[in-house]
UniProtKB/TrEMBL annotation:
This is Single-stranded DNA-binding protein. PROSITE patterns: SSB. Keywords: DNA-binding. It comes from Aquipuribacter hungaricus. GO terms for molecular function: DNA binding. Residues 155-168 have a biased composition (Gly residues). Pfam families: SSB (PF00436). Residues 122-136 have a biased composition (Basic and acidic residues). InterPro entries: NA-bd_OB-fold, Primosome_PriB/ssb, ssDNA-bd. The keyword Chaperone does not apply.
Length: 184
């Protein structure tokens, strides 16, 4: 789309990536990203951290599976995707969330090394279609406010299903985790 805001962000994974499966069987993963600018302080004669900006990053399909199998809390990453700022109400309080739908994501090699293992999939498995925005908003809101508890996020039989029931061939040594209720 021409009227989309595209961003490239460099920051740290602030919460463990959470994998869910929609009722249509589409995998989706979300996590919080902390982006802290660094500035030179002439009064201190050194580089200091500025304010931290927080983003909810959502990944779909094979990118979601790869993120859960590759990233952990605290790791430096570079995210490229579409930015959307949305308003919502949580516990009667109006809130704003900056959400990024990732199109590409990888480790920030400034801070370490990584290795790459390609997926064994056909290109036909990567067919992209428009996904129901309400499901994406539901997951992003749950991640933003730290309310994922492994329960169905959509109420009576609707919405996103909990990740532990998903068997997508991910590394069994790395459990699927929810972010809990830790503040960001």
């Amino acid at each position: 789309m021409l009227n989309e805001t595209r961003v490239a962000l460099r920051g740290n994974v602030a919460t463990e990536p959470v994998l869910k499966v929609t009722q249509q069987g589409t995998t989706v993963c979300s996590f919080r990203l902390a982006v802290t600018a660094r500035r030179y302080s002439s009064s201190d004669s050194k580089v200091v951290d500025a304010e931290t900006s927080w983003y909810t990053v959502t990944c779909w399909r094979s990118l979601a599976e790869n993120v859960v199998g590759s990233l952990a809390k605290g790791q430096g990453v570079v995210v490229h995707g579409r930015l959307r700022v949305r308003d919502f109400v949580h516990d009667g309080q109006p809130r704003t969330s900056a959400d990024v739908t990732a199109e590409a994501l990888g480790h920030d090699l400034t801070w370490g090394t990584t290795s790459f293992t390609p997926n064994r999939r056909s290109r036909a498995d990567e067919v992209r279609d428009d996904t129901d925005r309400s499901e994406a908003d539901e997951l992003a809101t749950a991640v933003s406010v730290g309310e994922l508890d492994g329960e169905d996020l959509g109420g009576e039989g609707g919405g996103l299903l909990a990740g532990p029931g998903y068997d997508g061939g991910l590394d069994p040594a790395r459990p699927l985790v929810d972010v809990g209720s830790e503040p960001f």
